[in-house]
Design a protein that fits this description.
The structure holds two protein chains of two kinds. By secondary structure, chain A is α+β, with helices and mostly antiparallel strands. Chain A has four helices and five strands; from the N terminus they run βααββααββ. Chain A has a five-stranded antiparallel sheet with strand order 1-2-3-5-4, covered by helices on one side. In chain A, a hairpin with a 5-residue loop joins β2 and β3. The longest helix of chain A is centred in the N-terminal third of the chain and has 20 residues. Chain A is globular, with a radius of gyration of 16 Å. By secondary structure, chain B is an alpha/beta fold. Chain B has two domains: about 160 residues, Orthogonal Bundle (Globin-like); about 110 residues, STAS domain (Transcription Regulator spoIIAA, 2-Layer Sandwich). Chain B has twelve helices and five strands. In chain B, α1 packs antiparallel against α4 and α7 packs antiparallel against α8. Classes of the chains: A alpha+beta, B alpha/beta. Chains A and B meet through α1, α2 and α4 of A and α10 and α11 of B.
Chain lengths: ~150, ~300
């Protein structure tokens, strides 16, 4: 079980069932890192949108989840979705709300960007797409115990 | 490739193995009955295990007769598939891993091999080697057939459960005259959304419903695809003269929908199923009032 292993994982995205897997992993990883319920839900929803893009537009690919930490000691979850599909021709247009090439609502990519803290797309026509998103745990500063 | 030599000639190693299997049917089955695979599955009596072993030996002889020792789809295996599946399933239930079951199947070879070697005493080493190779290929194919059968059983189970889940997930509940509700649970993929829409629209007709409540308390993630499915269902119900109310929108989901930029403005929404029911009753002209002054109900 990937999910039992914790935060780090590399999950395939090849079918609708894999999307369920991705969402469950992201939810558990986010909970493990101490994300609040709202932030968990945002991150899971963003992951769901991006994973579906990987499946529908990229023809399948994978998601990698990683635990990252800032120099200030703040925990974050980084999710990288990559495919080797046709790539995005016009990134600005793809990010704009309402634009769709797949019959959806056209909110996926732009919506996902609003749901996370950091968002980066690396894509060129014919060379696949990689979307990397990161969210940071926001919690009130607390004196560390036992130092 | 021994099986490609002149078919029908009794001299080929494949036919020698076939003849050996037929001749030693009883002894092979007796030896197999002591192997864990047979011994632990057929626990009623040893005879039962021996009989089961004979069936497998017959199947192997038939496959050898057809010169198809390397072919897991050979007709001879058809008859034993079910039995192999049962044996494999029994061993899995006993807690054995797939690898362990596979090695128990592999353990069927040595007793037969020993018999064959004893049988072919006096033959040339070349001939002996050909025959034992043919036998191990044949038993390797048997192992493959058993594992294939086990895997397809698992796949069939998964498919069945998937279907069951589809059915379970979409009950339509009549809450009041003219009000139906669908509590949605789990992931709303395209297939399930289609099922929900169909059952809901049928219920709208059957129950003469003017209001349909879609409760998404049990839907963990509402992304743009789920929202799109909801909006399509609402639109379809509206075409049939029923008004839809989406209820069970939790605070985290509400914030996420806003950030995602989804416009659910065309859809009537309520925080809880109770609120949605209250709204529908009010619209139908039926108000719920407390009959006791101190309020038996709190709404």
């Amino acid at each position: 079980m990937h999910t039992a292993a914790g935060v780090e994982a590399r999950l395939p995205i090849r079918s609708d069932m894999d999307l369920v897997w991705v969402r469950q992993h992201v939810r558990q990883a986010a909970a493990l890192l101490g994300f609040g319920l709202v932030d968990q839900t945002k991150l899971v929803t963003a992951a769901s949108e991006l994973a579906r893009n990987t499946l529908v537009h990229g023809g399948g690919g994978r998601m990698e989840a990683a635990h990252v930490t800032t120099t200030g000691g703040i925990d974050g979850l980084r999710l990288t979705f990559s495919d080797s599909g046709p790539g995005i021709v016009d990134l600005d247009r793809a990010l704009s709300d309402g634009y769709t090439s797949g019959g959806g609502l056209g909110m996926g990519l732009g919506g996902a960007r609003r749901l996370v803290h950091d968002f980066a797309v690396d894509s060129a026509p014919g060379s696949g797409t990689t979307v990397r998103v990161t969210s940071w745990v926001s919690r009130p500063p607390r004196p560390r115990e036992g130092v | 490739m021994p099986e490609h030599e002149a078919a029908g000639s009794p001299g080929t190693p494949t036919h020698a193995v076939r003849d050996f299997l037929r001749r030693r049917r009883e002894q092979i089955a007796q030896r197999w009955a002591d192997e864990p695979l047979f011994r632990t599955v057929f626990t009623v009596s040893r005879d039962e295990a021996v009989e089961a072993g004979k069936v497998v030996v017959d199947a192997l002889a038939q496959v050898a007769d057809a010169q198809r020792v390397e072919d897991p789809d050979a007709a001879g295996f058809t008859g034993v598939r079910e039995q192999l599946a049962r044996m494999g399933a029994a061993r899995s239930r006993a807690g054995l891993s797939t690898t362990q079951v596979s090695s128990e199947l592999a353990a069927l070879l040595p007793p037969v091999d020993n018999l064959l070697v004893a049988d072919l005493e006096g033959e040339t080493p070349e001939r002996l080697r050909e025959c034992t190779t043919t036998l191990s290929v044949l038993l390797g194919t048997l192992r493959l057939v058993a594992m294939q059968t086990a895997l397809s059983e698992v796949q069939a189970l998964i498919d069945r459960q998937r279907l069951q889940l589809l059915e379970v997930a979409t009950p339509v509940i009549k809450l009041w005259d003219g009000i139906v509700a669908v509590p949605l649970i789990g992931t709303l993929d395209s297939a399930r959304s289609q099922g929900v829409m169909e059952t809901l629209l049928n219920a709208v007709v059957d129950q003469h419903a003017r209001f349909a409540i879609l409760d998404i308390t049990g839907v963990p993630t509402v992304d743009s695809l789920v929202a799109q499915h909801l909006m399509k269902t609402v639109a379809a119900a509206r075409l049939m003269g029923a008004e839809c109310v989406v209820s069970g929108i939790r605070p985290a989901i509400a914030q996420t929908i806003v950030h995602l930029g989804l416009d659910l403005g065309t859809v009537k929404t309520r925080a809880s199923l109770a609120d949605a029911l209250g709204y529908c009753l009010h619209e139908l002209g039926a108000n719920i009032v407390n009959v006791t002054p101190d309020g038996a109900g709190h709404r």
